[in-house]
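Support case: user asked for a sample of complex input and structure output to validate their parser. Sending the pair below.
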Amino acid sequence: MTAKPMTLLVIVTEAVLEDILIDEITELGAHGYTIGDGRGRGTHGTRAGRWTQGGNIRIEVVGSTQLCARIVARLKEAYENNYGLLMYTAPIELQN
Amino acid sequence: MTAKPMTLLVIVTEAVLEDILIDEITELGAHGYTIGDGRGRGTHGTRAGRWTQGGNIRIEVVGSTQLCARIVARLKEAYENNYGLLMYTAPIELQN
Amino acid sequence: MTAKPMTLLVIVTEAVLEDILIDEITELGAHGYTIGDGRGRGTHGTRAGRWTQGGNIRIEVVGSTQLCARIVARLKEAYENNYGLLMYTAPIELQN
């Protein structure tokens, strides 16, 4: 394997944000993303403790540490106060 | 980024367990979870080798190592003997 | 927890490949896999930059480093030239 160390960023948020987040992520430099549907409950964002619904999405971005940091900073600034939003990163090895 | 080291717990199991596992996880102290639908095959649990079906779910919990250990211990004790069940953990950085 | 260090392999590709990839993965020795539906955009594979569609799948395999390397090598060889394909690995702790 000719693996390349990269960062995985996972964003769990409300489905209503899907289109706008795709624009944000792409403008910040992401070359790709994968979105899946989910349901759940969370306590991040201003709706803490009340973020109980279906209609969530889970977005995965694989990129540089810098790209993931830019996305995290932008989404926190713009959406955390008004939407359920959970973000985490992990080191991965890109395999192709 | 003001990242906080946490543990990601992923649980892959049968969809019929969704409601009861939400109760278990919440009672054990999880503040949030994300559930997605899946399909697949697995060899964990007593149904080893015969766990071939759609109707799986994939649950993600982000929490402390201790919380994840409690959930793992409880689910193994209560469900592993009768249901397909795969659980894994990984260190992640919570970003908000 | 009696955790066992293993490798997680995530494969994001086109939904049309689902049946054939299940056969490939199983023949290479995977004991299980989980598949979820997704949508997104990517730049891997020959369709780079034009891999913009719904109809993606996200496959997770938990196995040995060697198994994951075999799957990666085989899928790169057979599918990367003609399909959108993104693969990454990460170390995880199998919990049961």
